[in-house]
Amino acid sequence: MPDTPDVPVGGAPSGGGDAAQEELRDLRARIAALESGHRARETEGAAPRPSRHRARSVLAVILIVLGCLLAPLGVVAAWSADIVGDTDRYVQTVQPLAADEDIQKAVAGRVTDAVMSHLDLPALLQDVAPKGQGPLLQKALGKLGDSLEDAVRSFVQDKTQAVVASDAFQRIWTDANRRVHAALDKALTGSGGGAVKLENDTVTIDLAPVVEEVKQRLVDDGLTVAEKIPQVHTSFTVLRSEEIGKAKTYFRVLQLAGVWLPVVAVLLVVAGVLLATRRRRALVAAALGFAFATLLLGIALTVFRVVYLDALPADVSQAAAGSVYDTLTRFLRTGVRVVVALGVVVALAAWLTGPGRRAGLVRGLWHSGIGAVRTTAEHAGMRTGPVGPFVARYRTWITWILTGAAVLAYVLWPYPTGWVVIGLALALLFALSVVDFLAPSESGPPTAPSPPNAPGSPNAPSPPTAPDSLSKPPASPPPAPPAPPPPP
């Protein structure tokens, strides 16, 4: 039997084998080109960034770090410009101290000592003894001198305590606080003066008005010898520290900087974020760094309180000094809490609006919850009417307007606190939830993933592809041979 030529699959003639081999080689060359291009792109992506991007990143880090370092100094500068520079605000701050038991006890003890040191007990005996019998009475009570002095001291102490607990002391304390403010200004900036003195790194106030009030009470109650007490200038220590003189220059600079130093710190951070290649991540890091640096200031205030009270002399009431310290630094601590709360809120907002997987999961849960509420409301017959389409059309503008209103409310708030920041953030979140309720997101709720092997899913196996020569439609069959002619 003669050899028959090999016929390739598909019924092509033997001469088509060369064409099939050529097409196969062409297909292999295309695949090799694609693989080489993919490797080139991977190599290009793994290559180091240009020096220009690296310089921008380094400069962004420097600006953000400088802004974070200036954050606590900015808080101190704002506090100094507010408290030290505003007498009325200072008086309003320390005015409640007049009702503080430790302050009243310390003032009463100081005034009692001053009155007793100028009270003439022999003259007192002359007044109460019969005419001409003063020496005899004094001799008879010689052994009871200490007891008599203790009795008089107790009497004076009671009258002094009544004075410091009265409304008159409120007025005296307010006037004294204004003089304290001048002394504090002098202590920290080198200016000021008046009746309040700064000696040996100690801020003291003159309690002469309180002594005069006590003298009048003693005279009214029958102790007429108190009229002979001269004007007494006794001091009450408000602030004492060996570092006051050394800190004058630095504090003066902070006071002159005023509110501009925190503004400069914020501008440095903003410039660093704008220069960063990954701005959202830089914003989160900068906000948290700003909050952390300011939190260190709050910790330093707590530590310095202990050190300051331990360094006070024995004749100074630590309880009263602690009350004064807490009052003077109250607004400084409030500023620390404001900056920490603001930094955490900004960092959280930047992270939640980012493309991260966890942030997307949180947003999905949020939208799903609002969607469930909206579905329940629709089943109950609630309709938004034309409001829904309007909000959906201007959703972006409404979001920015609400955010700007929250920022403006914070800026215009006279003296914001940490709770004010948190309250404004929650109010903005509630307003945005109302917008989401009226106009659902265009993306809609997340859909469930398709089964791994379902058709059309990303993990579904793709059908095998054949070379071009095999994917072509089969050649038409050859024409059938003509039928044989019918027999004659």
Q: What is the number of E strands?
A: 3
Could you estimate the helical fraction of the residues in percent? Answer: 55-70%
Q: Work out the strand percent.
A: under 5%
Shape: elongated
Mean pLDDT equals 74
Order of helices and strands: HHHHHHHHEEHEHHHHHHHHHH
Largest sheet, order of strands side by side?
A: 1-2-3
State the major sheet: 3 strands, antiparallel
Task: Please identify the structural class as seen in this structure.
Answer: mainly alpha
- Radius of gyration computed on alpha carbons: 44 Å
What does this structure look like?
Helix content is 67%, strand content 3%. The protein has 488 residues and is mostly helical. The chain has a 3-stranded antiparallel β-sheet. Strand 1 (197-199) and strand 2 (202-206) form a beta hairpin. Helix 2 crosses helix 10 (244-257) and helix 11 (260-275) packs antiparallel against helix 12. It is elongated and about 135 Å long. Mean pLDDT is 74; it is low at 1-14, 192-196 and 443-476.
Compact summary:
This protein is mainly alpha-helical and 488 residues long.
